[in-house]
From TrEMBL:
It comes from Mycoplana azooxidifex. The lineage of its organism: Bacteria, Pseudomonadati, Pseudomonadota, Alphaproteobacteria, Hyphomicrobiales. Residues 131-188 form the UPF0029 domain. InterPro entries: EFG_III/V, Impact, Impact_N, Impact_N_sf, Ribosomal_Su5_D2-typ_SF, UPF0029_Impact_C, UPF0029_Impact_CS. Belongs to the IMPACT family. GO terms for molecular function: guanyl ribonucleotide binding; ribonucleoside triphosphate phosphatase activity. This is Putative YigZ family protein. GO terms for biological process: regulation of translational initiation.
Length: 195
């Protein structure tokens, strides 16, 4: 799964109508509502939107025929395996009717083009852990943690004989990283996963 690094826009003209997509990362339902409100244009004919946060999602056709605005935008989000993302597609009518199929292609296509052009970051599920080691092993432990993908060092606390590192490990590799740290220190390091 991925999310967007920043807010982005994409605009195109389809049969004299103007479509502008604005997509951005969101952290919760209220953030999604705020994003939609901030990026909707009251002077436009329609502001269709969709957003997804995990299993929670919403979409709106904003007066367009049912299923022609919000749902294609949500499909564009899902089609690019995105999460924590909101997209608003604003339409200014150009005088030519697009029909249901044309609207689906226009809304979904504008959203998809915007999402494709936006930098993405991978969502990594992490687990918190405490690594305790003696000073003679500290440099080796930190070097190995630095080479493991997705590891984040949150805090270091030193005591008389060594250090305790607060780390966030990728959930999928947490056990393997813990075994590796214990192995390279001949069992002197301990790894405790926070409850």
């Amino acid at each position: 799964m991925f999310t967007l690094q920043a807010t982005a826009t994409f605009e195109q003209e389809i049969k004299k109508g103007r479509f502008r997509a604005t997509a951005g990362p969101i952290t919760g339902e209220q953030a999604a509502k705020d994003f939609v409100a901030a990026h909707s244009d009251a002077a436009a004919n329609h502001n269709c939107f969709a957003w997804r946060i995990g299993q929670v999602y919403r979409f709106s056709d904003d007066g367009e025929p049912s299923g022609t605005g919000g749902k294609p935008i949500l499909q564009a989000i899902d089609g690019q395996t995105l999460d924590g993302v909101a997209v608003v597609v604003t339409r200014w009518f150009g005088g030519i009717l697009l029909g249901s199929g044309g609207l689906v292609r226009a809304y979904g296509g504008t959203a998809a083009a915007c999402l494709r052009a936006t930098d993405k970051i991978e969502l990594v599920v992490r687990v918190e852990a405490r690594v305790t080691c003696i000073f003679s092993d500290l440099a080796l432990v930190k070097a190995r943690l630095a080479t493991a993908p997705g590891v984040r060092l949150d805090n270091e606390r030193f005591f008389e004989t060594g250090a305790e590192l607060a780390v966030a490990l990728p959930e999928s590799a947490a056990d393997a990283i813990a075994r590796m740290l214990i192995d390279i220190t001949a069992g002197r390091a301990t790894v405790d996963f926070d409850a």
